[in-house]
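Batch queue: ligand-bound targets. Current item pairs a single chain with flavin mononucleotide. No template structures supplied; prediction is de novo from sequence plus SMILES. Inputs echoed for audit trail.
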Amino acid sequence: MDDFKTRPPSGAAAIPSQVYRDAMSRFAGAVNVVTTEGPAGRRGVTVSAAVSISDDPPTVLICLNHNRAENRMFAENGCFAVNVLSGSDVELARAFAGEGRLEMEERFAHGEWHTLETGSPVLAGARASLDCVVVDVQSVHTHDIIFGRVIAVGEENDGEALVYLDRQYRSV
Ligand SMILES: Cc1cc2nc3c(=O)[nH]c(=O)nc-3n(C[C@H](O)[C@H](O)[C@H](O)COP(=O)(O)O)c2cc1C
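Prediction returned. C-alpha cells below.
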C-alpha cells in the first residue's frame, strides 16, 4: 500500500490549508483538557482531538502537535487523563489553549485537581475524566496520535457541555 503519510493519493489535488481549516470549523468539537504528570513534567492542553476507539478494552486516542516540544511529556510520562469540560469551563479552556501565555502552574490554578490511578491531573467537576496509560504513539505529519488504555474513570458530573463550533465556545 502507498505510504499515506508522505504522499497524496494519485490524482488528488492539494487544497490550501485555510480551506481545510474553514471546513473543520463547521465541526462541533467537544472541548477537553488532556493532562499528564510524571518524571517528564506536568502539562495540560485544550484539545478537541480526543476520540473513543473501543470499549473492550477501553481505549481512546488523543492528537497532539509535536512541533510543541512540551507535548512530548505525554508519551514520556506514559500516562494522560482526558477531562471533558463543562459549559462553565470557558476560562479554563482558554488558559490551557495558551491564551494569556500563562505559566503551566497558573493554568492549573483555574481548577481543582486530584488524581486517580496514573497521577495525571483530574479536574473536579469535569463532565467525565478518563485516566489512561499510553499503549502506542504514531506520528502523522505535524501530530502524534497517542493511544491510551483507560484504567480509571472519574466521577461524572451532569450539566451543560462545552463545545467549539464556528471558532467559538458554546455551551450545549
Ligand atoms: C478548541 C480548541 C481545540 C484544540 N484542539 C487541539 C488538539 O486537538 N490538539 C492539539 O495539539 N492542539 C489543540 N489545540 C491547541 C492547543 O490548545 C494549544 O496549541 C496549546 O494548548 C498551546 O499551549 P502552549 O501555550 O503551551 O503552547 C486546540 C485549541 C482550541 C482552542
